[in-house]
Amino acid sequence: MNNKKINKVLGNVIFYLGNIIVGLIFVSPLLWMLASSFKPELEIFSNLNSLTTFIPAHFTLQNYVEVFQRLKVFTILKNTLLYIGIVLLGDLVLGSMFGYALAKLKYRFRGISLTIVIALMSMPVEAIILPMYIEMAQLGWVNTMMGLTIPFMMNCFSIYMFYSYFISIPDELIEAAKVDGCGPVRTYFSIVMPISKTVFATVFILDFVSRWNDFMWPFLITTGEEKRTVQLAVQIFVGVSPIHYGVIMAVLTLASIPMIIMYIFMQKFYVEGIASTGIKG
Amino acid sequence: MKRVFKTLGVLALGSMLAACGNNAGATKQADTGSEGSTQASESKSAEGVANVTIWSPTDTAAIEAWWTEKIDQWNKENPDIQVKREAIDRADAYAYENKITTATTSGNLPDILYVDGPMVSYYAANGITVPLDSYFPADDLKDFMPSTVQADTYDGKLYAIAPTESSVALFYNKDYLDKAGIPYPSDTDIKQAWTWSQFLDNAKKLTTADYVGTNIIMDKGEGIIYALGQFFTEGGAQFVSDDGSKADGYINSDASVKTAEYLNEFIKNGYANLDPVKDEFLNGKAATLLGGSWNIADLEKSNLNWGVSYFPVADDGKAASPTGDWAAAITKDSKNPDAAGKFLQWAMNSDNIASYASAVAKPASRTSSYDKMEGWDSGARALMKWQLQNTGVSRPRTPSYSVLSTDFSTAMLNIFSGSNAKDELDNVAKNFDENYEMYYKK
Amino acid sequence: MEAKLSKKGKREYGDNIAGFIMSSPALILLIAFLIIPIIYTVYYSFFTYQVVRPDNIKFNAFNNYVKLFKDANFYVALKNTIYFTVIVVPVQCILALILALMVSSKKKGVAVFRTLYYSPQITSMVIIAVLWTILYNSNANTGLINAFLKSIGLQPIDFLNNPKTAMNSIIFMSAWQGAGYQMMIFIAGLNAIPGEQYEAASVDGADWFAKLIYVTLPGLVNTIKYVLMITLIQAMKLFTQPYIMTKGGPRNATKTLVFYIYEQGFQKGNFGYACSIATVFFIIVVTLSIVVKRISRTN
């Protein structure tokens, strides 16, 4: 009995100590970024060889003030969210339908469609970005919201996530719906979708993060301050001489905060969602 | 979150009506999704009004304010020519060029395009920009720095016009020089500037456990050829032939290889970092800095005890210094080149250049502008101006410049990390000649 | 059309119609904005095309490909891509598994630790790369990691400027950034292993290591396969890190295929040639995906 208790306490100590140490090491680069964003420029590299580098000795908000003076933060946020919103709409609605069809409907070309999705999943956008732009120009979509969003509305990785989730839904459930006279499309929307919140949440987060972090496409396809998105705004501070790291750290921190907040709020759904897509493979 | 899912469900159902029977109420909501997606394209011009769009890289707050003010003023005074500027956000010069490249493939260039000095010939040779001679006659050009006109001219014609210039000088930390017992180099007499040997020797003496002797690397792109290129001129080398058509025998000449090896002494021996943080000197982590005119304002604001001297000269006294800055050009896609030209004439007049240059704290390209600018008679600024007028040399002018710049920067970085200088520069020559042969040979 | 379908009976007919309806919007978008650009890419790979001269495109048949197969840089890029993939996939997956084992219990505060490990994943690779370029700085006076190495008495390492360490530095950073995602999948996989199996193993006197080998790992087979597949696919695309941190150097040590495509097409303007590299890359990637798909299906 006593032995067991000791074991349990020991287990807890190892668990917390281990995780705290590894966790701190893990986030130390981000902590350093955060700390540096509150330091005057000359303090950033002044005490690297001691742990005090993680604490701003002369705390200042100047770097943030500079970011807010320089940027129309509200416009940037609005642009980014609009961009993400439209992309997500396509991804969550059309992508999930496709994923369901691939997983549960025995229709023609299903096999080849699945192969196409998997093959395209590994296609890096950077390799075809110029032809994509040429196509946008032919459509007259350069510097429009359509050009910015529509090409990214469909994301093979999301389709695959939906596919792997829907495959795990028991066939009996779908059969039962059929017996009740529900067509496959109806079955999907009234029976399958409501029980699939977690996968939607997962795709939502993954897509939100990757669009939030997208730089190359918004950079090429849009022009000008009114259309500026978050990652473009970050570039300003990295690109204009003289370079000041304090401000860079502040803008990097600001650009990461919304993602971290969103993640914390959606964590519960998210873990379950990944769970359901991952294990069935 | 629940609401999101509900809306999504409704939207999806709306579009699925045909398949699943009887859901009438959803259609309206389904439409709202697409409404926000079409944004008004360029506003249609009223009759007789010429619209002129400008692209230039996003700049410091002061320059952004200058643009807003000047464009407002112009648009009020010239109702028939309405100008709009788009700031292009970019992390480096290469990214900005990628944006231009992309727009070129489909005729989406603006009327006026700011381009980095050495790219002028690339864009001109490819017919992307049009000559500006009619807007800036030879008489007017006399007022500009010789290096500006040189950089902006290709094949005998003026293809761009730069409001500002740039120069690189040697900044030093007085405290560190005192500690090492090194006398300050002169900022009034180039004969007492540091020579190559002195520069190397002093960098060695100045290197300590806490800071390096010098900082000579600006970035891993265009900054390499910009800042280090003039060492090659001083060393008696030339990047390409005078007509810009050949690199073999120039970039890989003996003089060139020797210069590259000289520069590598700094990196190899640890007198300079290959990958310095951008404000190493400001932070007291480097004793000297090959820095630009844009560093001056920043240093003045700091508590650093600093001084400035000339860009190091060759041991035989031969002096050169980097020059060049972003210049405005008119593109082939412009529908109103004359309107654009008129605007440029105004934007590049002596007064406007003076206020622009003051805002960015860079040397003006027009000599007459200095009369209207404060602080350019002494100290670091006067030295920069003197260098521009006396030792400034523009970067090589050739249509294959982008290949030269990319490969030269790669080659130098490779040399710095241990490659053989001759092999690397041979490779630059080979790639350059191949590119010229393929696209520009007449 | 209808005649053909009706042979298969009513149910399949319904499935067919529904299948077409549900997949066509997505498929149309995929074809329009992914497959058409790929077709363009393949098409332009047979031309001499200076990128800013769309008015002057010359058909050159297989010249680009002939040049490609003789191009030493192409093989270097191919080798680097393979090297990165082969190393980063196991490193990242093992790291993720270890993290998952550390936070799979139901103890209080476990969500906080999960968030810590996941946080690099939420930050954009662009941001991470900018940050780590500073952290990796070769000088102990300006680079955090080297300052640490120096303070524990080690020699500073020139992480990104030494051809021997540059790619490994990128691998380390990428694994750090990406592991959080795979960790989540592993946590899910671990939770799905029935508790009775562990109890049974305990009864048999198994210690934690034996449980790991005989219960945990076999229970995770599907998860591991899935994780390997998605990590592999991500790894082949490596671009942002060399683009921001090393520009493909030093001495081509971090030049990957995607970076090389970018460098040739954008930077040097050899768009036709870049398209030929991209085409070869597509062939490799598609083949790989199909093979991976086959493997995961047969088991």
From TrEMBL, chain A:
The chain crosses the membrane at residues 12-35, 81-102, 114-134, 146-167, 188-209, 243-265. The keyword Lipid metabolism does not apply. InterPro entries: MetI-like, MetI-like_sf. Keywords: Cell membrane, Membrane, Transmembrane, Transmembrane helix, Transport. Residues 77-266 form the ABC transmembrane type-1 domain. The keyword Cell membrane applies. It is a multi-pass membrane protein. It is found in: Cell membrane. CDD domains: TM_PBP2. Belongs to the binding-protein-dependent transport system permease family. This is ABC transporter, permease protein. It comes from Lachnoanaerobaculum saburreum DSM 3986.
UniProtKB/TrEMBL annotation, chain C:
One of its GO terms (biological process) is transmembrane transport. Residues 78-292 form the ABC transmembrane type-1 domain. It is found in: Cell membrane. Keywords: Cell membrane, Membrane, Transmembrane, Transmembrane helix, Transport. Pfam families: BPD_transp_1. GO terms for cellular component: plasma membrane. InterPro entries: ABC_transporter_permease, MetI-like, MetI-like_sf. CDD domains: TM_PBP2. The chain crosses the membrane at residues 20-46, 82-103, 115-135, 170-191, 212-236, 271-292. It is a multi-pass membrane protein. Belongs to the binding-protein-dependent transport system permease family. This is Putative transmembrane permease MsmF.
